[in-house]
Amino acid sequence: MLLPCVRRVAARRLSRDLPLACGCPAQGPAPRGYSRGAGGKGLVLGVYSSEKDDGAAQFTSAGDAFDRLVSGKLRELLSLCGPPLKKGKTRIFHGLHQDFPSVVVVGLGKKNAGVNDQENWNEGKENIRAAVAVGCRQIQDLEIPCVEVDPCGDAQSAAEGAVLGLHEYNELKQKKKPIVTPQLHGSAESEAWQKGVIYAEGQNLARYLMEAPANYITPIKFAEHIEQKLRSFSNVKVHIRPESWITTEQMGAFLSVAKGSTEPPIFLEIHYLGAANTDDSPLVFVGKGVTFDSGGISLKPSSGMDAMRADMGGAATICSAIVTAATLNLPLNIIGLAPLCENMPSGKANKPGDVVRAKNGKTIQVDNTDAEGRLLLADALCYAHNFNARAIVNAATLTGAMDVALGSAATGVFTNSSWLWTHLYEASILTGDRVWRMPLFEHYTKQVTDCPLADVSNVGKYSRAGGACTAAAFLKEFVTASHWAHLDIAGVMSNKDEVPYLRKGMAGRPTRTLVEFAARLSQDSHNAK
Ligand code: BES
Ligand code: ZN
Ligand code: ZN
């Protein structure tokens, strides 16, 4: 016999014993008689795809408990709604329980999903993040201000899905999306939930800074925002170095970019002393902080140029990772360095062919003023060598070529250290914000050191070929440390719809991977080198 249509079943139930089931995705207002925001909360529950032929819903333990609470009505309604829910698909039920006027059930995919060796990530965690994000957004569409979330067996991933999935840059709009506060459903795993909230809020801070317009996040505003976030920590010191300091430090490459703009440059320096021994060698993070990259005299095409407000994504992700590390009270020392400036065309700007001198004395021919990130980083990397670092890790939206190579699937990692690579890689499997190792061959070095007027050119001599690799080879000229990694994050800078738990916009990637990496390093104690 054919099942009657879901809506008709729902209507019949409503007239009979009240609970209203709606088998369709949540859209529009809640049915009459069901208050929104008046005390009741939303509830997001996960359900695994069925392994057995009977098609019965395979609830999580929270789902099972809730189903018992409502005398099996949830299971009954779900089976009336049709075939088992596929991964990421939802059904919403109104009026099942007085404390939860709206319940979203969302498909989690396979029950025992774990690390997927082909995909280089933990599929189970990714499924939870994606499912919870979808569920929470449906609650937001219903304008319910509070949602309880099923931990789905991994409360950290669930919290990440909720907090990342609900984030949106609303700052400058008069009409804002309703604020929804996610909470853990049940009392178990509250520590893991809290950890997930902190990781996700860290990434959201980077997203906020990257998304904000360049006239709001100037170098000084960026530095002040980060300083304010770190103000309450007694074990953090923030130095906002002005132009005079940068000049004294002889950072000629950085200054050559900054002088094209009327907005003064800043060198932001953060010291987080989380280790029991404040003298322990620190992890040093360096981030490209170009708050707007017009290309300079080698002007970029106007179409899409607005995205270059996020060209401080390296600085945003490393600073946000330090804010997160401090919040988690990670037991290690971290130094953060962010050269911040604009890249603009003007009468004072770098001209193609100009030669500038970096902090280590090397001369650089600026063959293309749009390859400005490596000029800032050259000086910041030289400076990073002052701290006897355990490792130096820099992040930069450095090359369009990186986006061409990997797209948004993974951050490209160029490193001289397999020890460092292993830590970054293992961290990324957990976070789902993946990394992929790229080459630092002498082959590319030759293409930047074969330069007519200076020690090194800021572009490879075969112009676009291997652009991400020649940029990395250029940076290597300013590194003597034996544990250094350069993360080219240009490809992962923004999200269209590739990462299901991030809305469209600047992505703040790979903040969580940097945090997880730092957490692992803090456990790898002192014999790490
Ligand atoms: N900030 C850009 C790279 C970029 C492009 C980041 C797209 C994110 C998305 C960088 O400063 C740049 O313009 N690089 C040039 C280098 C070239 C001139 C050698 C590029 O990639 O085209
Ligand atoms: Zn550029
Ligand atoms: Zn740039």
UniProtKB/TrEMBL annotation:
Its cofactor is Mn(2+); Zn(2+). The keyword Hydrolase applies. This is Cytosol aminopeptidase. Residues 368-375 form the Cytosol aminopeptidase domain. Cytosolic metallopeptidase that catalyzes the removal of unsubstituted N-terminal hydrophobic amino acids from various peptides. The presence of Zn(2+) ions is essential for the peptidase activity, and the association with other cofactors can modulate the substrate spectificity of the enzyme. For instance, in the presence of Mn(2+), it displays a specific Cys-Gly hydrolyzing activity of Cys-Gly-S-conjugates. Involved in the metabolism of glutathione and in the degradation of glutathione S-conjugates, which may play a role in the control of the cell redox status. It catalyses: S-benzyl-L-cysteinylglycine + H2O = S-benzyl-L-cysteine + glycine; Release of N-terminal proline from a peptide; L-cysteinylglycine + H2O = L-cysteine + glycine; an S-substituted L-cysteinylglycine + H2O = an S-substituted L-cysteine + glycine. Its EC number is 3.4.11.1, 3.4.11.5, 3.4.13.23. InterPro entries: Leucine_aapep/pepB, Macro_dom-like, Peptidase_M17_C, Peptidase_M17_leu_NH2_pept, Peptidase_M17_N.
